[in-house]
Every structure is written in C-alpha cells, then in structure tokens.
C-alpha cells in the first residue's frame, strides 16, 4: 500500500477586528469606579450575620476578578507591528492598526514585527561550479508580508529564515565558478556581483514564500577561496597578472620598434638591409622587454665580422 502526502494548506492573512482601546479603557474605568462605590456601600455593619459577610466577600472577589479579566483584553500595537488573533485555535484575523486595542479576553494575541530585519550570515564553505572549495557569506534584508503564513505555516519563522538563507547561498554559489578560468565563463561569483546578488534574492524569495516573508535585498559580503587552495589560486592569479603585463609590454615594444624603423627610413638617417633590421629589432626587443637593465656592448667592427 503506497502512502500519499497531503499537501499543506497555505494560510492567508485577513484583517481582524478589535475595539478601540482608549474607549474601552474609559468604559472599564467607569465600571471599576461603579463597582468600588457599590462595594463601599455594601460593607456589612458590625455584628452582621456570617452569611451577609460571606456574600460581601464573594461580591468583592467577583468584581475584582471581572475587572482584572477585562483588563487582559488590552494590548498595544506599535508602528510596523501586527497582532495575530486566534479564538480556541481558530485564526480570527490580524490587527495592524496602531495604538491601544481591546479584544475579548479569551482571544489569544500573538504580536509579529513587520519591520525590516537585517541578517548577516555566517561564512559558509561550499564548492563552486568547478568544484573549488570557497567561503561565502551574505547580507539579507527581509520582512514579514503575510503574518498568517509566518505564524501558522512554519514552526519558527525566524529560524526558518536563517536556515533558508544558508541553503539559498549554497545553491547560488554552486551555479557559477569563482573566477573566469576560460572564455566560457560569462558569469562568475567574483566578477558578476549584480547578477549573483539578483539570483540570490530571487532564490530566497522562492524559498521563503511559504512563510509569507519577502526579501528586499540580498548580496554577498564575503567571497574567498578556502584556505586549503588559497595559496595555489593566489599563484595562479599572480601568473595571470604577469602574463597580461608581459603581453602588454610586448605589444608596446613591437609598436615602438616599428615606429623607430619607420622613422629611420623616412628621415634617411641610415639604410638598413634585412639582416641589419633583424639585428636592430632583436636588440631593441631585448632592451624593451627585459627584466634587467641592459648593458650595451660596443662593436668596433661590422655586423658581418
């Protein structure tokens, strides 16, 4: 017999109703004063029967409990805060109106902050597209957009966010190489920050949608090779830099030699045959491309001796 998973029903936030807390506070204050005056007027005289005294005590306790019970229904809503109202386990709506509010005391109120939260993740060690171990971390700005989903569809939405940030970071980090090692690497983690950050934000929004959470901003804050390969990759980057510098030096030297030969020929300073041109080009390239200072050698004869 094969089992079938039951799809989870997604909750949806709806507006909840609450009474104006300031009005209810005035009403309860008036009721409290009335109860106090009634109790004062009902104080039994000395020598009253025991039953009368017990009735007075019962009235006093009942009035005090009624007032205290009514005060339980008051709650305050701060700016960018909401209160999820439930009645015997049933969702009865979300109150977002700021200020003092009042609901029936048997209704449970759970406050949820809808302000922007900022999380800087821990460094996560992952493998990039080429399998190189790297360390990455990110900064995420998120907020609760649907309080019903955040409270009822996940167990702990804040812990859920932390776990999904790490999972999303691993997913996006594994899609691209750390650096462009070939011409096919169009998007890299190091060189395509805007693209990678946009992918990370989209990935997190998809993962956190089930909890009614929206990611406003996400971006990498740390990116480096893992310590075990950092030295080798540093030497590779240094080699790439040396090759690029050598290439630029050679191109510049060739241009300078070409200009020198053209100038000598144009001004008629000296008429060089192919062999002398080759020797001159060789000498100039050695001087211009060499790492060490050139030491001239005086030739008192001719090129052919």
From TrEMBL:
Protein name: Membrane protein
GO CC annotation terms, alphabetical: membrane
UniProt keyword Transferase, yes or no: no
Localization per record: Membrane
Gene3D superfamilies for the chain: Band 7 domain (3.30.479.30)
Top-level taxon in the UniProt lineage: Bacteria
Band domain: residues covered: 72-237
UniProt KW Membrane keyword: yes
Record membrane topology: Single-pass membrane protein
Record's keyword terms, sorted: Membrane, Transmembrane, Transmembrane helix
UniProt xrefs under Pfam families: Band_7 (PF01145)
Bilayer-spanning residue ranges: 21-43, 55-77
Database matches in InterPro entries: Band_7, Band_7/SPFH_dom_sf
């Amino acid at each position: 017999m094969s089992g079938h998973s039951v799809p989870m029903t997604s909750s949806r936030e709806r507006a909840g109703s609450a009474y104006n807390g300031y009005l209810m506070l005035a009403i309860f204050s008036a009721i409290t004063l009335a109860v106090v005056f009634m109790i004062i007027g009902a104080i039994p005289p000395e020598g009253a029967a025991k039953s009368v005294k017990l009735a007075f005590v019962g009235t006093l306790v009942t009035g005090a409990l009624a007032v205290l019970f009514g005060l339980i229904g008051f709650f305050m809503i701060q700016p960018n805060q909401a209160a999820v109202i439930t009645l015997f386990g049933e969702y009865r709506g979300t109150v977002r109106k700021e200020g003092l509010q009042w609901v029936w005391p048997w209704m449970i109120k759970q406050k949820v902050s809808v302000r922007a939260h900022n999380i800087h993740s821990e460094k996560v060690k992952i493998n990039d597209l080429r399998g190189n171990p790297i360390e990455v971390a990110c900064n995420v700005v998120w907020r609760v957009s649907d309080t019903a989903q955040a409270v009822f569809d996940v167990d702990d939405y804040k812990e859920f966010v932390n776990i999904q940030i790490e999972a999303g970071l691993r997913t996006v980090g594994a899609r691209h190489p750390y650096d462009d090692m070939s011409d096919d690497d169009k998007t890299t983690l190091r060189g395509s920050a805007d693209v990678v950050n946009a992918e990370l934000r989209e990935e997190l929004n998809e993962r956190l949608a089930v909890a009614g959470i929206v990611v406003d901003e996400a971006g990498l804050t740390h990116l480096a090779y893992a310590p075990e390969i950092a030295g080798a990759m540093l030497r590779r980057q240094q080699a790439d830099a040396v090759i690029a510098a050598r290439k630029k030096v050679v191109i510049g030297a060739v241009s300078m030699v070409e200009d020198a030969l053209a100038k000598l020929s144009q001004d008629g300073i000296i008429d060089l045959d192919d062999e002398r041109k080759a020797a001159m080009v060789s000498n100039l390239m050695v001087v211009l491309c060499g790492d060490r200072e050139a030491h001239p050698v005086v030739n008192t004869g001719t090129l052919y001796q």
